[in-house]
Amino acid sequence: MSDWKGFKHRVKIDGDYHAVDNKDPASSGLISSDRVASPDETTMNFRPSGVSGDNNRHCLDVALSDGDGNGIDEQNPLPVFLTESTGDEVDEYDAGAATAEDATVYHNYTVSVGKVMKQIEAECSSTGFAVFALQVETGVGAGTFTTIMEKANSVSNPNVDFKYKKRVDAGIIVRVCKTNCDDDDTDLHSQIRGVETVAS
Length: 200
Hints:
mainly beta; Jelly Rolls; 5-stranded antiparallel β-sheet; 2 domains; single chain
């Protein structure tokens, strides 16, 4: 089958080339112009290339360049700017007030319905000696927890910090476990931070 455009350029729309079944393939497709001030038909000289990928995908080749057409590499890097994370900020504080000697208290945060929590951090402190642990529930409503990290404070370092890079799914509890190791009642402070985004 053939189409005629303006009775000048014959355009073939007979599909992909095949050595046996279709030796005269379609001639219509994407064509780019040379980079000139006034592009026209005579500057339309570039056809994009591509390759067959997995899952029956056919991929066009893509190359990044700067405004002068120079490739992006170590000598000509692409500037990247960091911005605030999108999503809902989580900032939950618990005082752990007057925790008895050798007692353990828990600071729990449950990830919101339909969300996932990322960039999880916890900050903990006590005026006395204490042991803190960051834990993540093994499943929704499981009631069992995996300890990510455990840290103890000291006189010279009364604060401890945790960071967790993996995502935590909706309904799962992020927990700070706080144990008073001092010989008197003391406050065990903790703050859980992170970003909740819509689950995908």
